Amino acid sequence: MKQSLDIQVRQLSHSYAATHALQNINLHIQPGEFVSLVGVSGCGKSTLMRLIAGLQTPTQGNIWLDGQPSEAARAAKQIGWMAQQAALLPWRTVLENVQLAQKINPQKRAVPQANELLNMVGLADFAAAYPLTLSGGMQQRAALARTLATGTAVWLMDEPFAALDELTRELLAGELLTLWQQFQPTVLWITHNLHEAIRLSDRVVVLTPRPGTIAGEIAVPLPRPRDDTSMAFQELLRQARALLRRERVHGD
Ligand code: ADP
Questions:
Q1: Could you tell me the domains of the chain?
Q2: Cα 222 from Cα 201, distance rounded (Å)
């Protein structure tokens, strides 16, 4: 059973009434690749993610996940989603939230038991807790366990750790990377944080201000874990900043 699948976005444009959100996006994400999407607020990052998730239909263009339309991939529950809000069921314990997700595991992929997943995300001692009694970071850990439990081959992650303090965010991002290496899903990660994008991704895709088009891409060929003090890391960060800044100036 394939653990990850490819995402093809072809000549995609999207408008909301008078708002032209995205313009001619072409993007190919390889199976198991970790790609970050960066760009200023309102440039269409979340829109692109919702379109890939099959939650909205593009005004123009196509999206395929492993050769099938994104709506079909969504219906087949092949897509995992994480956002800033963990969106756990508050009246279920952490363990029950994870077990429920496991029941919808569409491909019947072999995923570890719910208790083992909680162990992996550092929540072994909180299985019986209710989500609202946990900190934001712990709730996101539980959400991560829930995503793992569904066994999905694609993780769409819209700034899942953005509301957390910086230390927790860095810690969780590091742990996420370990889980990505272990489960090997295809990941699309939205962030405002270039440093985080370079630390985590195989490739950073920079969008222009609205309507969002692809301003450029930066491949990150550095081995993980990455040393953010190295010359190579700093150089990639500089390139990404220059690309984003250029687009910001042009967009003003
Ligand atoms: P980002 O995630 O980069 O901040 P979004 O995809 O949320 O950008 O939004 C892109 C543009 O589309 C913005 O101008 C936003 O106001 C607009 N937009 C997003 N969602 C909707 C919606 N459901 N209806 C109307 N306009 C929307």
A1: 1-78+153-230+240-252 (3.40.50.300), 89-151 (no CATH)
A2: 10
